[in-house]
Amino acid sequence: MKILSVRADGFKNLKNVDISPGEKTNIVFGENAQGKTNLIEAVWICSGVRSFRGTRDRSFICLDGERAEIELEFENSFRKQIVKIASARPAVREKNVFLNGVKLRSVSKLFGQLNCVVFTPEDLELAKGSPDNRRSFLDLCISQIKNSYAEVVEKYETVLQQRNSLLKNIISGISSKDELEVWDMQLSKLGSYISMLRYNYAKKLNLYAAELYEKISSGREKLQLVYNSTVFDNLEGREDFSGEMAEEYLKKLRQSCQDDLRSGFTQTGVHRDDLTALLDGLNSREFGSQGQNRSVALVMKLSQAYILSGETKEEPVILLDDVLSELDQRRQDFVKSQIDGFQVFITCCKRPERTAGGQKFFEVKNGRVREV
Ligand SMILES: Nc1ncnc2c1ncn2[C@@H]1O[C@H](COP(=O)(O)OP(=O)(O)O)[C@@H](O)[C@H]1O
Ligand SMILES: [Mg+2]
């Protein structure tokens, strides 16, 4: 998959951007707050997956502008396609989305055409940081392969919030305990489905990540990624998410009901699960050095790209936002060698030396981008 051109105008601070990226490495450089990440974000939005920066609709359009437009041309092994997203004040929530000139209902309908993997400095905390980050990582990876999954996760979050408010109402005597049942039933089905998909994804991730880790650590230690469910003892081979699995889930919810009623929160469920990285059997989050944890994070993100590539039979476009400069030379070289052949966008502050043919350089200044 290759991006052939990116046009953006009025998206955040981007002005009259019209660039033709190269097939391989594209270096986007410039000082801070000039619009490098905005450019990366403009590309990412065209993939139809939710913003990695959590941009709200009202900040989509330039603060002192009236309209925003992004147009991106890309090709996979079969054909060229054009995505266009336009938005104008005052209806900032409304986006006019076109794929090859055909209007789509929303940005999320673009899903599955342009595949990207974005890598930010926050991702380097993936192994060391809170479980929440790893759950979001898994959820994002899965939704890139299976679009309907994101909705299931959203539904789960909503039901969970409702159950938590009910718990508080029960504690304060406004509601009765019987009312929990309807939420528990829903959580059990949604949660079982999420557990099943996350478990299977984590298994795949482990295959790739273990091999990559072997390389990055020159065989010094072995990495194993394990999905830790707070509900299920064993998820291997399980498929019946609306039957047997849901029953087991329901039982677990009922068992922890007393705890839930003491704390006012649902203590068990996929919102408490984690993806654990073991280095030679020890939890890297607790025992690993900063360097080891960064290596784990790197191989997790690289594995995401490889899995996406395998599932879609197209190499995703790799977006490295300010991430290489955070790494030591050895890890930088490792990342570069692993994504050789993919189309890559790398942002950084200083213009680096040209190291190979086929590189293109773009300078970003005050929202304007030009090839140099
Ligand atoms: N909706 C918006 N309208 C105008 N400017 C914006 C908007 N949102 C962000 N910006 C500006 O974009 C700049 C940051 O761009 P960013 O891409 O994050 O910079 P960097 O080059 O450091 O990656 C800031 O100057 C910020 O004020
Ligand atoms: Mg930036």
Primary descriptors:
6-stranded mixed sheet; Glutathione S-transferase Yfyf (Class Pi), Chain A, domain 2; alpha/beta; binds magnesium ion; single chain; binds adenosine-5'-diphosphate; 372 residues; 9 helices
Oligomer: single chain
Q: Helical proportion?
A: 25-40%
Uncertain regions: pLDDT < 50 for 5+ in a row? none
CATH superfamily of the largest domain: RecF/RecN/SMC, N-terminal domain
Strand order of the largest sheet: 2-1-4-5-6-7
- Gyration radius, to the nearest Å? 22 Å
Mean pLDDT, all residues: 94
Order of helices and strands: EEEHEEEEEHHHEHHEEHHEHEEE
How big a fraction of the residues is strand? 15-25%
Task: Characterize the structure shown.
With 372 residues, this protein is of the alpha/beta class. The protein has two domains: 2-115 and 349-371, P-loop containing nucleotide triphosphate hydrolases (Rossmann fold, 3-Layer(aba) Sandwich); 124-290, RecF/RecN/SMC, N-terminal domain (Glutathione S-transferase Yfyf (Class Pi), Chain A, domain 2, Up-down Bundle). It is 38% helix and 21% strand. The protein contains nine helices and 15 strands. The chain has helices spanning 36-45, 131-145, 148-171, 180-216, 244-255, 257-263, 284-287, 290-312, 329-338, and strands spanning 2-9, 17-19, 25-29, 67-75, 80-88, 96-99, 102-104, 116-119, 223-228, 274-279, 282-283, 317-321, 344-348, 360-365, 368-371. The strands form three sheets. The chain has a six-stranded antiparallel beta sheet, covered by helices on one side. Strands 8-12-13-3-14-15 form a six-stranded mixed beta sheet, sandwiched between helices. Helix 3 (148-171) packs across helix 4 (180-216) and helix 4 packs across helix 8 (290-312). The longest helix is centred in the middle third of the chain and has 37 residues, at 180-216. The chain starts with a strand and ends with a strand. The relative contact order is 0.18. Adenosine-5'-diphosphate (ADP) binds next to helix 1.
